[in-house]
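Box 3.1. Reading complex inputs
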Amino acid sequence: MKKAIIFFASALLLTGCIKEDSFSNSPEGNFEALWSMIDERYCFFPQAEEEFGLNWNAVHDKYKPKAEACENDAQLFDVLGDMLNELRDGHVNLSSIYGTTQYRDWHQDYPMNFSDSIQRNYLGNGYRVTNGIKYTSLPDSIGYAYIGSFAGGFNSDNLTMMLMNLKENKGLILDIRSNSGGMLTSAEKLAGSFTDKSVHCGYMQHKTGKGHNDFSSPEAIYLEPNKGAIWLRPTVVLTNRGVYSSANYFVMLMQELPHVITLGDVTGGGSGLPFNSTLPNGWNVRFSACPILDAKGNHTEFGIEPDYRIDITSEDWNNGRDTMIEKAKELIFAYYDKISEQE
Amino acid sequence: MRLTGKIMAVIAMIAMPLTADAQIAVTDSIMPERIVVKSSQYGITSLNNLDTYLSGYDFKGMGLYYSHENFRDARTGSYRWKYQTVFSGSLGYAELGNNTQIAGLATYQWSGYHPFTVNSRLKLLAGVQIQLEGGALYIPNNGNNPVSLKLRTALAATGMAIYHFPVKGKDWVARYQIDIPLAGVMFAPEFGQSYYEIFNEKKSDGTVAFSNPFNCPSWKHTLSLDIPIRYKRHSTTLRLSYVADFYQSEINDIRCHIYRHAFTFGFVKTILKVKEENKIKAYSPY
């Protein structure tokens, strides 16, 4: 009986051996926790090493003394934020009561190529809004729709009604400039209104282990058509460097459709699906975790080159004229001219 | 009425509906076909949750705990098996820094036991158990990986010790139960695989893993004490329980543990089931 009681007591006291990460809640511990988390889970080390020579081990050696020298959490937050910015990835952030760190050079060192003041000259006051999309018919029977964000969801019926309201137009300009993203599902939903069949548009991978090159084999992504109205007339997607994340994904989907042209500046990129995790002190970390590749298997992390590379000229900017919208109209007219010539 | 009297009255009022089915006294000459012991338990649980798919650190908090147990003899006779079903669930809230986590788990266990009587007071039971579990850990702050689903089924070894001891002429019962999963299958995404890829893009191949005591070293301990209570003409049995549930897994480099320590209370209802023809004889005036 005594032995049985000892056995049961031991069983109750014993717990298993699967424990949390062993880093302490100290400046050094939080630094090591963040560095290790990124080292094991960040998905763009091969591209960063190739693109700008990132050496993550050297980053550790550079920032460790700085972290150890921090006298308070505010200083530590800045040091850790600077370390994350070495990745040059807008999807990598550290969040706490001190704010959210963010790498912004992916768009700040490039021309804006978008002005809402100039946009007003085209939208006027008679535009409609549905699911956050502002749209109108421009003179010369060209439809124009501005999608400023993919943060909200799109409704099939609303998209159908928008396309029905634009049906008298010869072509459509989809302006997603300075759209910094939102939900991948929203990008897919909108793009699904521009195809009547399933189209192979890219691939998705994920990390299978902690090594920098531990990835699954790419799984194909297909764009499926929406229920409701489908737009198959000439469509021009306007881009600038502010097109990021799921907006970048939208361009990746749309560029595979035969009646779609992309026009403007190289997109901002941000093709990694971000994950979140936490440090021992509870600060939240976001990082790119799952790479998305285009239909040719190329990474789009650093942006997508448009079919027509064009900037807003200084002259047009000063005159309130949008060079990109004008060029898009030209391309739609040229499409119909070409058809007329063939007939 | 003194305070203890009031407490006893409240307990008796709660217990009365639970004991309403125990209509046939144990001393009845009609042998019951089988005895079923039912108990619903309510309580609170501490939470210590780790899932490196969501975070590398423990989220700690509290939650509500519920369990319902049916324990019955298979048949009367010299050779007996005993069957137990337990449904248990917890819903709680845990924190790490400014991050919050909501954790919900529901478990169903079916067990078959063979009893071994050591002496008149102590009985040992050993058997097998089938476990079904579903639930999720949810961190609203995590954008694209806010949820870690917990879906698993397992075959487990289970053992029980039941000890009767008298206190002031009443039969108190202490019971200890241990459940150890031995083999099973569970939902397990790969190291960095998103639920977007699994569910939106429908790329779910490889998300089912086999579990064993090495990659899923888990066990559950339940310690309970049944205390007979009598107030005026009403009698019932109060059950106080402590449940220590240690679920752990390490699959695809994703480490997880869900440690729960629950303290519960409830009442035990004993039903003596009698064959239909015997019921008629028992209650017929002829």
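In summary: The first helix of chain A runs from residue 2 to 13.
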